[in-house]
Design goal:
361 residues, mainly alpha, Rhopdopsin 7-helix transmembrane proteins, two-stranded antiparallel sheet, disordered N terminus
């Protein structure tokens, strides 16, 4: 019988329990595929994601116009994704090394904590931007005083502190532990009792995903419903302003970001939920143990995609972002350099604007 390697404390317990009970099929060939393919995929995600999120941060930081409220949240989201992506190369090497952690205890703790922080910060930033869109379109007149840039920055700061607080158990209990069964030293969550394992997974699954996801879905469905009603009325009256159209386009961008986050992270969180059932012995046996080992690996690999896909969404969905990026990077691009990735309409509107501004100075 070949045992699966410990991805974390929960999966190591699964394998140890399994080895003490029944003989399970040899899946060593499947793990060899994981060791070969997953690092290559995550390396690709890292390269694309780092370049993309640096582009986002660079654009929002250097653009001459002050950030809008939604952009404050999206900039913080890009920062969280960049931190996450900077930690992934350590884990790709860990997978290549068949989960034998080669980087020592400090990097085990710090990278694991940073990754967990990204999950909490990202989803609660999406809650915050969903609330902002909800107040903008559903309760337009009642909460204008709440929607300010200072408030948005304060919410972002609180979100980071909240994420750090929820990541403390990861920092405390992540350690490099030797597993004689596999003859490796793995970076794993080493909780004092099995109850801690279940509690941590439960918090991660509920506070880190289910509750905020429920809020996000409710807020965005309410916003979409309100937008549709207002759009029908304004089309009938022909009274939609340019500002309202731009705000609606920004909302479309945010909807796309939220949708991709949920699509990328839901499979992993589903397997985390199944793992809670496994830890509490609601489900058991070789089938579930192997399914969870491979399922969590697949789910986490898919989840990493989210951190590189947001910049792609900004470029292809966010016309305002493309315009800002063009304005920022045109300062560094030689005159006459072809900008084929921007539509002719956007280029002409930008360079016409340059002509007007230069004539006024």
């Amino acid at each position: 019988m070949t045992e699966t390697p410990p991805l974390d404390a929960a999966s190591s317990n699964r394998s140890e329990n399994k080895s003490n009970s029944t003989m399970c099929p040899d899946l060593n060939d499947w793990w060899e595929i994981v060791y070969y393919l997953v690092p290559k995929y995550i390396d690709t995600v890292c390269i694309i994601g780092m370049l993309g999120n640096i582009l986002v941060l660079f654009t929002y930081s250097l653009h001459k116009c002050p950030l809008k409220i939604a952009e404050i949240y999206l900039m913080n989201l890009a920062a969280a994704d960049l931190i996450f992506l900077m930690c992934l190369p350590f884990w790709t090497e860990n997978i290549r090394n068949k989960f034998n952690w080669p980087f020592g205890n400090f990097l085990c703790r710090s990278t694991s904590t940073s990754i967990r922080l990204n999950v909490y910060a990202s989803i609660y930033l999406l809650v915050a931007v969903s609330v902002d869109r909800y107040l903008t379109f559903v309760h337009t007149l009642n909460h204008r005083e709440i929607r300010s840039k200072t408030m948005a920055k304060g919410i972002c700061l609180l979100t980071w502190f909240f994420g750090i607080f929820l990541s403390v158990p990861t920092f405390m209990f992540r350690t490099v532990k030797h597993f004689p069964l596999w003859n490796i030293s793995a970076c794993t969550l080493d909780f004092p009792t099995p109850l801690w394992i279940t509690a941590e997974r439960l918090v991660f699954n509920t506070v880190g995903f289910m509750l905020p996801s429920t809020a996000i879905i409710f807020l965005n469905f309410s916003t979409i419903s309100s937008l549709r009603k207002k759009a029908r009325v304004r089309r009938a009256l022909g009274t939609e302003s340019l500002k309202e159209r731009n705000s609606r386009k920004a909302t479309t961008l945010i909807f796309a970001v939220i949708l991709m986050f949920l699509l990328c992270w839901t499979p992993y969180q589903f397997f985390v939920f199944l793992d809670i059932l496994y830890q509490t012995e609601v489900i058991n046996g070789c089938f579930w143990g192997e399914l969870l080992n491979f399922g969590e690996q697949f789910g986490y690999t898919l989840a990493t995609t989210n951190s590189c896909i947001n910049p792609v969404i900004y470029v292809f969905v966010g016309k305002s972002f493309r315009q800002k990026a063009l304005e920022v990077f045109s300062q560094f691009i030689p005159c006459g350099f072809p900008l084929r990735w921007v539509s002719f309409k956007e280029k002409s509107s930008y360079f016409n604007g340059l002509t007007v501004r230069s004539s006024l100075t």
